[in-house]
């Protein structure tokens, strides 16, 4: 792996991340393929919007179809027919969302499957082994994510375990082609973020994520903590803000110096009839669109906008037709992909400030990022 | 429109049907796009399997989104982004499936919407006007389809009304580019089929369908009545067997001299996890496929079989992922498209008899068509 920062404008940066399955130009948004499929879309669709890396979920794949099946079929890339990069999360976030069903110890976390109630355990070691067995390009260290607001004692404990587990993850590595990223925790407390970042940076991992945000806190808190944490991370390593995927949050994240993002937002919206545009989201089922012959977004360069009208997609959702979620999922991901491509170009050209202000104005009606 | 029979082998024929949106090489299977969408698939997907004509349902489009919306958006082709041919059924079949909710008279048929209970009426005239307003390439005449087994009186009445309505449909035509096909009824009674065919052939319509079959009768009855009816139809006009779409039934239909087919079977199966192959259908959810790295059908030339394993598609269905129905729908249509392409080639080459026997043996374990 190599990561090169090619240009800066303020904290925003344009980079190039070379992974085992090709180069990811950053800033980049990673579509989420929870169960080894970006819902409703094929690898070919993802290539059509020039996605270079997608995310899949350790928790879901662990339970179904399981490590043996995927390994036997040649790893996650072969299994899902995707020859570009894959990052898997560590499963920690999912387990900690299932609050009542997990038992945390220094060793790891025991939990019950949401599918059949069976008992499982994630440890730093088995989570790394799982991700390596899948053959992913980037593996995330097992972390402890606290629910906000959190008491200081809880935050301290999450930072302590996250560091201890990251060390054990690092020690458990055995596969050159899988890069291990650490995850900075610390809630909304700056001293805890500093401590978490310092302890993880000391491990000299190939990349760092900002975790524990985008979990319900205010936009002000999200942006403040993202900026604060990004500044604590090494200049020469990729920074990944987990769970962020709206137009305005991506702009803010880029402006804080973040390189990678992921979120289910664009595909979940796509399944629910919510169309992303640079000037706000549309509820495509709304009566106003039933006879609207225009594309979802006339400024969008995606194949959906080139081919289908709002009226047609609105009809598909009213008629409960699968093609509706499919088309909107692709369009929504295309909107974010185009935003990222423009950001990359602007940071090179020194026009990021303008793009940022214009895009925020279009998205929110205000040129301030919060 | 022009229809040319290019070659014969026995009753089987290889033809070329020139319609307003391009040439359809026959025999051809028409994918069903009930609500102006072949479920889960894009026009691009349909082009990838070289579909030249698809079917849409008057009944469904009448109720939603309705004639005005489609006309305002430039007609059905523009509405759904499909630039090849479209055939619409007349709505008769759907209305007669909703048995308890319709009132039949000489004038037409009154029925209630399955969506909101609102009352509507189909007449020969308004059904032609509707299909012409949609700008379709082939419109079907309004017919009366009886449920089998049927009393002779019921069959007589259905033939009488079907003829009377076909005359009124023919008189109501106003659009050169929309071809009106008549539908032969007559249940399983040969004399009634003769009468229906003779009365419709006298109207000199551009094409004829064999209706009232594939509604639950035995395979013997289906094949016997198809062969009997096909022989009653003019040699120089296209023959369309409605509602047929399994591998063995298509082979039998081609062997009877049928040129066009449609059925929801391949796409419905695709949504339900049933994969069509030339050697029988597979339930892709079966445990046996969970780690099966082979494609659905190694002899299939479709993109799904080139890219994905049985294990992956099995996983998609277990995980309730939309991509599963999408991939299997495309594969299933591809299987039928490839069968039709091979049949066309074989009839030219004089090897249809061999292909038929081999394909039937593979599909059924027996080389007889029933």
Could you explain how this protein is built, in words?
The structure is a homodimer of 370-residue chains. Chain A is α/β, with parallel strands linked by helices and 370 residues long. In chain A, 43% of the residues lie in helices and 18% in strands. The first copy, chain A, contains 15 helices and 16 strands. In chain A, the strands form four sheets. In chain A, strands 4-14-13-12-11-10-6-5 form an eight-stranded parallel beta sheet. In chain A, β12 (207-210), α9 (219-232) and β13 (239-241) form a beta-alpha-beta unit. The longest helix of chain A is centred in the last third of the chain and has 27 residues, at 323-349. Chain A is globular and about 60 Å long. The mean pLDDT of chain A is 96. The A-B interface holds A 35-37, 39-44, 60, 64-65, 69, 72-74, 79-81, 290-291, 293, 303, 307-309, 311-312, 315-316, 318-319, 321-323, 325-327 and B 35-37, 39-44, 60, 64-65, 69, 72-74, 79-81, 290-291, 293, 303, 307-309, 311-312, 315-316, 318-319, 321-323, 325-327.
């Amino acid at each position: 792996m190599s990561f090169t920062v090619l240009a800066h404008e303020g904290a925003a940066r344009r980079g190039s991340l070379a992974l085992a399955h090709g180069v990811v130009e950053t800033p980049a948004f990673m579509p989420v393929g929870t169960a080894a499929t970006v819902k409703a879309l094929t690898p070919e669709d993802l290539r059509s919007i020039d996605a270079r890396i997608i995310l899949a979920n350790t928790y879901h794949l662990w339970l179904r179809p399981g490590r043996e099946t995927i390994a036997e079929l040649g790893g996650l890339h072969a299994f899902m027919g995707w020859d570009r990069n894959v990052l898997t999360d560590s499963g920690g976030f999912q387990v900690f969302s299932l609050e009542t069903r997990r038992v945390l110890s220094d060793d790891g976390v025991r939990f019950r499957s949401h599918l059949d109630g069976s008992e499982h355990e994630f440890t730093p070691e088995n989570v790394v082994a799982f991700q390596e067995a899948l053959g992913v390009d980037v593996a995330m260290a097992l972390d402890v994510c606290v629910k906000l607001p959190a008491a200081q004692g809880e935050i301290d404990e999450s930072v302590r375990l996250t560091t201890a587990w990251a060390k054990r993850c690092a020690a458990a590595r055995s596969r050159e082609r899988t890069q291990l990223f650490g995850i900075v925790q610390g809630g909304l407390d700056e001293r805890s973020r500093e401590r978490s970042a310092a302890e993880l940076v000391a491990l000299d991992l190939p990349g760092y994520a900002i975790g524990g945000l985008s979990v319900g806190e205010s936009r002000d808190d999200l942006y403040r903590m993202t900026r604060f944490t990004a500044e604590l991370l090494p200049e020469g390593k990729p920074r990944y803000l987990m769970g962020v995927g709206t137009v305005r949050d991506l702009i803010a994240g880029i402006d804080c110096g973040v390189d990678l993002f992921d979120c289910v937002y664009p595909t979940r919206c796509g399944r629910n009839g919510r169309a992303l545009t640079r000037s706000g989201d549309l509820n495509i089922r709304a009566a106003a669109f039933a006879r609207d012959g225009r594309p979802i977004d006339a400024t969008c360069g995606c194949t959906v906008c080139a081919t289908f009208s709002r009226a047609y997609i609105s009809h598909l959702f009213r008629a409960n037709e699968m093609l509706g979620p499919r088309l909107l999922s692709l369009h929504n991901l295309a909107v974010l992909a185009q935003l990222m491509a423009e950001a990359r170009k602007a940071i090179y050209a020194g026009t990021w400030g303008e793009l940022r202000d214009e895009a925020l104005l279009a998205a929110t009606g205000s040129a301030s990022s919060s």
